[in-house]
Amino acid sequence: REGFSMFSRLLLILVNTFAGAFCGITVDSILYPLDTIKTFEWKFELRTRRFQASKGSVRVGRYKNLFNGLGTILLGSVPASAVYWSIYEKVKRNLCEATHNNTKLFPVCEMVAAAIGESVGSAIRNPFEVTKQFIQIRGYSNPVRAILEISKVLL
In which band, very low, low, confident or very high, does the pLDDT at 103 lie, cut at 50, 70 and 90? Predict the structure, then answer.
């Protein structure tokens, strides 16, 4: 009986990890082009505001590389999402058991679990997010070059 309990706990962790990884891939792949457009608009907003106003529209050619940096963000997003969901489910379950499944405290258990999971997930995701923005803004085709540039800026 003890072995089954350990096996089912391990299975639950694996299911949450793979579900989180799948969610990370899906969300980032679908929303990435919008993020690229947002990043380009942020970059060019101050510089080209007057030009765009005089021409009346945004040039589409600027968005030809909508998926530049997607691989880099997936390298960070997949483990970050997997870790988030694993931590979230584990902490939520432990808090619910500690509060004796009090339904009034369930939202608090979920909020605390989400905050802890998101903190750890963000710590994993953030360096990849910075690298992705360098790739998008500066037009790097090689993530290693972007990382070297970031290192020069930080040091």
Answer: very high
Q: How many residues does the chain have?
A: 155
CA 9-13-18 angle, to 5 degrees, is 145
CA distances from 113 to 6, 84, 148 (A): 22, 9, 35
Residue range 43-72: average pLDDT?
Answer: 61
pLDDT digits (tens, 9 = 90+) for 130-140: 888 878 777 77
- Find the angle CA(140)-CA(20)-CA(38) to the nearest 5 degrees: 35
> Could you give the CA distance from residue 24 to residue 117 in angstroms, rounded to a whole number?
14
Instruction: Give the distance, in angstroms, between the CA of residue 24 and the centroid of all CA atoms in the same chain.
Output: 7
- pTM, entire model: 0.71
The span from the CA of 65 to the CA of 135, in Å, is 11
